[in-house]
Design a protein that fits this description.
11% strand; three-stranded antiparallel β-sheet
């Protein structure tokens, strides 16, 4: 593998993280049947709401000669420009337009993801519906009087659905491949399935990475020769880049770089969304089957079957481990991006009386200062089936209160547990009410 400059700039190794969600099975396309009915249920995500506003004339998207509808779409959906990351592996439906010279740019907030290829025909969009999980759309980049956001099921789910890739539900993915100088994956070199537990050394190939990370190394900003991959990887070549000048045409993108902290956050967030979706789907199916079984009994009972309770527990534990960053790869030294992303993200709330927030970053030892995902505030989390919400609430009480000292949560110090409990008590009222009703005390993070 080598770092190479030529007339068109730098080439790199491809890393896309694929989400594997063990323990939450949803067979085949079962989600297209009741009680989920993914393909036929009207979406209620932010993109669907925007499209209805466009249809009714309540919203308008301005067209930019330079970027098409991208700036207007970012503004309409409150997706920050500084979340920009750049991926140059040919891993989109518009792969013929993607190369190390013309990377695809990605932008995201807590619930929407937008992809743009400079020479591409469409913007690719994914949005989280509170009940239906990830919904996929495209927006034509040709200027028209009345642009519309078009939902795409079959085309997008060819890649964005699979037991190995997304846990058997419509979801998002990043996976690691070794591409050649044109961005094509060298499949015989193998691939990596990575998540927030993956060490930095296995992340970000095929992505441009702008930021500093000291002696830590990653796979970004590089390409590899087919004969050399994957045995000879020169991670020094792509390390600690602070800009992409002379590498790409920076003027072709709203932002000049591919922020390291945004990449870290993107890796966490996409996988958290998938786990919430997979858990919600599995439990809704299990509850529907349970209700049908009990209705068929001569003497029906209100008690859930043992198999349903196991499904609840399996789904809940998958969400909890990821929510609380169990097994997260330690950074070990300071990392920093090159945009305003980290500063803006850390300023977000809600905050408790001590000024603490789940949006505060660490970026020395780990991603977040308080290791509990901010997506606990998301509509998708709040829309989980009630029995699953209650299971997660009880288990959070046991974990944060110190009753659960298992290896899965050994990374949480007593101070971590107390701080997370205190933040959640003051910033997530529904959870606080459940804790109050079940004896979880304020402030201490411990059971009486």
């Amino acid at each position: 593998m080598r770092h190479r400059r030529h007339a068109h700039g730098l080439h790199g190794v491809a890393l896309l993280v694929v989400l594997a969600l063990p323990g939450i099975p949803v067979a085949g396309d079962e989600y297209n049947l009741p009680p989920i009915a993914y393909a036929t249920t009207p979406a209620a995500d932010a993109v669907a709401l925007l499209d209805r506003a466009l249809e009714q004339g309540r919203q308008h998207l301005d067209y930019s000669e330079r970027f098409g509808y991208l700036p207007a779409l970012l503004a309409a959906l409150a997706v920050p420009r500084d979340s920009q990351t750049l991926v140059f592996s040919k891993t989109s439906q518009q792969k013929e337009h993607i190369s190390p010279d013309h990377p695809r740019s990605l932008y995201f907030n807590d619930e929407v993801y937008i992809g743009r290829v400079p020479l591409g025909d469409t913007l690719e969009i994914a949005a989280t519906d509170p009940r239906q999980g990830m919904i996929f759309y495209v927006l034509d980049q040709q200027q028209v009087a009345h642009p519309r956001l078009v939902r795409k099921n079959d085309e997008c789910l060819i890649c964005h659905d699979g037991q190995t890739l997304t846990g058997g539900v419509p979801g998002l993915m990043m996976r690691s491949v070794f591409p050649d100088a044109q961005g094509q994956a060298i499949l015989k070199a193998g691939t990596y399935l990575t998540d927030q537990c993956s060490p930095l050394a296995l992340r970000w190939g095929g992505w441009y990475v702008t930021g500093t990370h000291g002696a830590l190394r990653h796979l970004g900003n590089m390409t590899c020769d087919e004969a050399a991959a994957p045995a000879h990887v020169d991670r020094e070549a792509g390390a600690n880049r602070v800009d992409l000048k002379g590498v790409i045409d920076e003027a072709a993108y709203p932002e000049p770089g591919s922020d390291l902290v945004a990449l870290l956050m993107l890796g966490h967030q996409t996988q958290m969304h998938n786990r919430i979706t997979a858990a919600g789907f599995a439990v809704r199916v299990a509850l529907a089957q349970d209700a049908a079984f009990r209705a068929a009994l001569a003497h029906p009972t209100n008690a859930l079957q043992e198999s349903t309770q196991r499904s609840l527990a399996n789904a809940g534990e998958e969400v909890l481990r990821y929510l609380l960053f169990s097994g997260e790869a330690e950074l070990g030294q300071a990392v920093a991006g090159t945009s305003t992303f980290a500063a803006r993200f850390s300023e977000r709330g809600p905050r408790d009386r001590h000024g603490r927030s789940l949006f505060q970053l660490d970026l020395v030892h780990r991603l977040l200062r308080f290791p509990c995902s901010y997506l606990i505030y998301s509509e998708a989390f709040d829309a989980l089936p009630e029995p699953l919400e209650e299971y997660i609430s009880r288990r959070l009480a046991e974990i944060l209160g110190g009753q659960d000292q298992s290896a899965a949560y050994a990374h949480l110090s007593a101070a971590d547990r107390s701080a997370i409990a205190g933040i959640l008590r003051e910033t997530k009222p529904a959870l606080a009410r459940w804790w109050d009703a079940h004896g979880f005390p304020a402030g201490t993070g411990a059971w009486p």
